[in-house]
Amino acid sequence: MGSLPDPGELTHPPPPPPSFDEFQRQTSLMTSCTLLWKELSDHFSSLEQDLIKKSDALKAKFQALNNETQQSLQALDTRESSISKSMSIVLESLEKTTKMSISLAAPGAESQTEEPEVDDSEGLLMKLKSFCHKMAAKEFWVFVTARKKELELFRSELPKALADCVDPPRFVLEAISEVFPLPSSNSTSNSSDLGWACVLLLESLIPVMVDPVLGKERMLVTPSIKGRAEEIAETWKKSLEERGGIENVKTPDVHTFLQHLVTFGIVKEEDVDLYRKLVVASAWRKQMPKLAVSLGLGDKMPDMIEELIGRGQQVDAVHFTYEVGLADKFPPVPLLKAFLKDAKKAATSILEDPNNSGRAAHMAAKKEQSAIRAVLKCIEEYKLEAEFPPENLKKRLEQLEKAKIEKKKPASPAAKRTRASNGGPMPPAKAGRSTNAYVSSFPSPPTYVRSPSHTQYPAPVPAYPAVPAVYGHGSRSPPYAYTEAPPPAIVGSYPVSPVNFPAYGGYNNGMAPAYQQPYY
Fold first, then answer.
1. DSSP letter string, 469-484
2. CB 206 within 8 A of CB 263
3. Domain range spanning residue 374?
């Protein structure tokens, strides 16, 4: 028999079976936990990846800095070790130059030294060296500026001559001080007229100032001379306001100033905007693209090129484009074609201008010729023949040249001495160029005098028709007021013509001319 439950013992009912809702709640909770875990796991994985990338970047930067530091230290060691060698070379050259300068400056040295003849490159070099040995900057300046036609010869010989100076930078600054930064009170020359000489000397000074061992990495210029060069640059900048701003400064002055900055290495970062404006204003100069790069304007080149294009200076923009390697961004052929199109429009507008009717054709042809020559030079310089064949441009240039030559040919004498519409003779060809523009082609009518052997004159031949009173000789001949000849005076029974006969009167005196009067 089964045991009976104890009445004092508590009995619990069996738990109910789990419901479906509870199952769904548990499932949803597990899903949320799973998603949260995945999100946290992805977040930490991303953080780990970022940390790894930053760590790699830091390692790369550290390695680059380490390499740069090593290179800098090596360069410093090289420069330090080169100082003694460079100084020995410079001192040896300085000692040699000083001895030669002292010997030339000694009393009686000039009489013993023959003056070199400047008839070739060797004679020119000797003459330049004589000025440099004596440090005669003023005479040197006069000598150079008087020989602009020998520019290319100077360009090759000046660095050699300046190398024999005791202090080449000081010598050049003293030489160009006649016109730069401002013309001296004793100077009669315009600084713009002699800008070419200033630029030439400043360019020739660069190879002389470089370190004999390190080259352009170290310029041999003393702090005092560099300070003086900076003062000169500041003086020039202050004079801009007196000259009326950048727009009124002439290009040779701008070129000299920018070359002065590059030569002495005194480019200032705070003046970059000024340099940019000066370069754009004088962009047509051949050396401007290289100067712009040397002035630190490489990163501003795209904006400068766009500004030049907007100003209609597409050819200058092409030169700047190739200097900094932006030909892909600014294709040269469309720029050159646009330049030719603008030049053609300008020539057409000149022809249509009523104020230029006299020389309109000449001016229009000259402008188009200049544009074609500039484009042809660009095509040749940058090897663009495949993209822009120059044959049509050359033919057009030949046509313009031929038309110019044909226009200059003088008209034939027969065309000049045509008869008037009424059949009368025209004046000789040189009448318009003579002192008295109205010179008759016929002799003056003879004076009739009474002769005792004749009772009357023979019957007159038919008279020539009267010549028109006015002949057009342009503005070269003075106006002539035509007046009729007075009637002949009566002497006895014979008419007598007056002595002062008008130049172009009517020959109705009954006598035909026997010959043509010569003209001079």
1. S----GGGSPP----P
2. yes
3. 331-406
For 491, the enclosing helix (H) or strand (E) is: strand 489-491
Instruction: Enter the pTM of the model.
Output: 0.63
Domain co-membership, 255 together with 376: no
Q: Is 258 exposed, middle or buried (0-12, 13-18, 19+ CB in 10 A)?
A: buried
E strand residue ranges, 135-256: 210-211, 215-219
If residue 91 lies in a helix (H) or strand (E), which one and from where to where?
helix 20-105
Helix (H) or strand (E) holding 127: helix 121-134
In a domain, 379, yes or no: yes
Q: Where are the alpha helices (DSSP H) in 220-328?
A: 223-243, 251-264, 272-281, 288-294, 301-310, 314-324
Confidence of residue 357 (pLDDT cuts 50, 70, 90): low
Q: What are the φ/ψ torsions at residue 356 (nearest 5 degrees)?
A: -115, 35
Assess whether 253 and 355 both reside in one domain: no
Q: What is the CA radius of gyration of the chain?
A: 46
More confident residue, 492 or 161: 161
pLDDT of residue 173: 95
Which whole number is the average pLDDT over 206-228?
84
In what helix (H) or strand (E) does residue 74 lie, and over which residues does it extend? helix 20-105
Q: Answer whether residue 12 is part of any domain.
A: no
> Helices 20-105 and 121-134: crossing angle, nearest 10°?
90
Residues 255 and 356 in one domain: no
The span from the CA of 245 to the CA of 237, in Å, is 10
404 sits in which H/E element? helix 391-408
* Structural domains in the chain (count): 2
Structural contact between residues 520 and 434, judged by C-beta atoms closer than 8 angstroms: yes
Instruction: Give the whole-angstrom CA distance, residue 231 versus residue 227.
Output: 6
Does the pLDDT value for residue 8 go beyond 60? no
Give Cα 342 distance to the centre of its chain: 19
Tell me which of 406, 440, 460 is where a domain ends.
406
Residue 400, domain member (yes or no): yes
Q: Of the given ranges (10-14, 413-417, 447-451, 515-519), which has the lowest mean pLDDT?
A: 515-519
Last residue of a domain, one of 391, 406, 421: 406
What value does the mean pLDDT of the chain take? 76
Domain co-membership, 232 together with 336: no
- Cis upstream peptide for 495 (omega within 30°): no
Residue 196 lies in a domain: yes
| Across 55-66, average pLDDT | 92
